[in-house]
């Protein structure tokens, strides 16, 4: 009988294209992946991998079995979902991924509510960017991810995933209190053409969005600093080292010396939950989405019209 863990390993290699990438995706060592594949070859009596330069490639038998593995693993997920649905209760383990500001601004309340309403459900949060969490959902490492895209830059979502909107998060411009525009009630992006910017790191979805948006406003961005955390970005701004886009979700208290001002043509992030379609019937998924939506509605109402200048 074929071993599910070994089929999952083979499918990971097929999906990621290498043993090392599959090991990263499965959170195991490359040695563990190689051992699982060697055992699978002995079980099947077929060579599944062949050397390809410094790496490996799937043989015809390997590709054939990987295709079957994809369908088998999907059926296992459906079986688990149906069993959970028949029980009719949100129980067991649920792994949730969320980008940092959602993890900070949305999840503490949502997780507490989920534990209170569904005490038999054990939810675990992993902080991760959308370009990490979406593949993790596809692989089955994460059950549900809270991700984002921007009003002018959609985030591609692979086939086989379902998504549900949670809230729209407004973003303002943060600037030093000494900035000439700091006392304005509203600003236009074009007014910051001469400023230096604090951005997210290169390669991140939000950094790419910022470059696109500033250039769309006729600004060639001058990025002086890059920081992952919004709190770090605001600290740099408080020191007079640039301006930045500051989303409201999870922003917290504004440091002394920083002003945040709304933008006339509102910049919004669309925040939503995404999960595998074959897990759609799981009560735990439905419970998590309901709690996240309820929490998001409360947060949205609290933040509406509150740019938070200090």
What does this structure look like?
The protein is an alpha/beta fold and 310 residues long. It is 43% helix and 23% strand. It contains ten helices and eleven strands. The strands form three sheets. Strands 3, 4, 5, 6, 9, 10 and 11 form a seven-stranded mixed sheet that branches. A two-stranded antiparallel sheet has the order 1-2. Helix 1 packs across helix 2, helix 1 crosses helix 3 and helix 2 crosses helix 3. The protein is globular.
Briefly, what is this?
The protein has helices spanning 4-16, 19-26, 30-44, 60-87, 100-105, 107-117, 130-139, 205-216, 230-238, 283-303; strands at 49-52, 55-58, 92-98, 121-127, 144-150, 161-176, 197-199, 223-226, 244-247, 258-261, 267-276.
> How would you sum up the global shape?
globular
Low-confidence stretches are none
Spell out the helices and strands N to C. HHHEEHEHHEHEEEHEHEEEH
- According to DSSP, the number of beta strands is 11
Notable traits:
two-stranded antiparallel ribbon, single chain, 310 residues, alpha/beta
In terms of topology, how is this protein built?
Blueprint: H1 4-16, H2 19-26, H3 30-44, E1 49-52, E2 55-58, H4 60-87, E3 92-98, H5 100-105, H6 107-117, E4 121-127, H7 130-139, E5 144-150, E6 161-176, E7 197-199, H8 205-216, E8 223-226, H9 230-238, E9 244-247, E10 258-261, E11 267-276, H10 283-303
Helix pairs in contact: 1-2, 1-3, 1-4, 2-3, 6-10
